[in-house]
TrEMBL record:
Pfam families: HTH_3. SUPFAM superfamilies: lambda repressor-like DNA-binding domains. Residues 13-67 form the HTH cro/C1-type domain. InterPro entries: Cro/C1-type_HTH, Lambda_DNA-bd_dom_sf. PROSITE patterns: HTH_CROC1. One of its GO terms (molecular function) is DNA binding. This is Plasmid maintenance system antidote protein.
Length: 122
């Protein structure tokens, strides 16, 4: 992960911590690192690992991609709205889309089978 990506992730984590009123001490405890280590990460003196990003996203209850992706159009005012997104809601939406995709495939196959049978009958 390059330096720009690292910096963006750290900036996003800091904004979410502030938005959700979560202390660095509490976050450090939840992800099983020392407060000093988290401070070094948040002050960009130490690189953040992908494992730490995953743990932080889980604790902050945000989708992991939110920490990697830049704020839309550089609009920091939009971030509080993004921070309210719930991981569970995202997972439920993905599950619903998966079911819809399966149904779509089923109906496509059903239509193709019906078309083949119609050709045989003709």
């Amino acid at each position: 992960m390059n330096k720009d990506m690292q910096d963006a992730i750290v900036d996003h984590v800091r904004m979410i911590l502030q938005q959700k009123n979560i202390s660095q001490k509490d976050l450090a405890s939840e992800i099983s690192i020392t407060e000093a280590t988290l401070s070094n990460i948040l002050h960009k003196h130490r690189a953040i690992t992908t494992d730490e990003v995953d743990k932080i996203a889980k604790v902050l209850d945000v989708p992991v991609p939110m920490l990697y992706n830049p704020i839309p159009f550089g609009c920091k005012e939009a971030f509080p709205l993004l921070a309210q997104a719930k991981t569970k809601e995202v997972e439920e939406t993905i599950q619903k889309l998966s079911i819809l995709a399966q149904r779509t495939l089923f109906y496509k196959n059903l239509r193709e089978t019906a078309e083949k049978q119609m050709e045989i009958i003709r």
